[in-house]
Amino acid sequence: MSAVVEPQPAVALHPDIAPLAPLLGTWRGAGHGEYPTISPFDYVEEISFGHLGRPFLTYRQRTRAADGSRPMHAETGYLRCPRPDQLELILAHPTGITEICEGGLTVEDGELRMEFDSTSIGLSSTAKSVTALGRSLRVAGDTIDYTLRMAAVGEPLRHHLAATLHRAP
């Protein structure tokens, strides 16, 4: 038995997340990672932001080795904007980690800047020890630049990832 899925009408963007509209869509690009406990690496990435007409964006991220040979990481979650200048990023990682980050949003000359610091990190019994995360994102036109900071496995909060992604056609 197969179900027939009827096309759904487009849903209007919730007004609370209107400042985040430039994020909507799919973004692809490349990045570089490093950390004192691992060898440096390059990767390719795809991020998608969507919405359901509610006061949040959906978020899905996937990375592969730079040569495309193997999957590396994934995250899924939500980006909320409870106040015009406040953001909440709620993520789940398949490595047994959950992440809640909060931060600020600035919009200036058509550019979005988001700064996040973790307020809660959840770990399964088999997850690697991560104690803090921080993210910085800049959206300018059809480009997203981001950096990620991490405190893990006894290391203090420090640079871990940086990438540049472009809006997919």
Descriptive account of the structure:
This protein is mostly beta strands and 169 residues long. Helices cover 0% and strands 66% of the residues. It has a ten-stranded antiparallel barrel. The mean pLDDT is 94. The chain has strands spanning 25-35, 38-51, 56-65, 71-83, 86-93, 97-108, 111-123, 130-140, 143-152, 158-167.
Task: Please give the structural blueprint.
Elements: E1 25-35, E2 38-51, E3 56-65, E4 71-83, E5 86-93, E6 97-108, E7 111-123, E8 130-140, E9 143-152, E10 158-167
What's the arrangement of strands in the largest beta sheet? 1-2-3-4-5-6-7-8-9-10
| Structure summary, number of beta strands | 10
**Rg from Cα:** 17 Å
Topology as a string of helices (H) and strands (E): EEEEEEEEEE
The residue ranges in which pLDDT falls below 50 over 5 or more consecutive positions are none
What percent of residues adopt helix (DSSP H or I)?
A: under 10%
| Count of helix runs | 0
What proportion of the residues form beta strands (DSSP E)?
Answer: over 45%
Overall outline: globular
Structural class: mainly beta
Q: Report the sheet with the most strands, covering strand number, pairing sense and barrel closure.
A: 10 strands, antiparallel, barrel
Mean pLDDT: 94
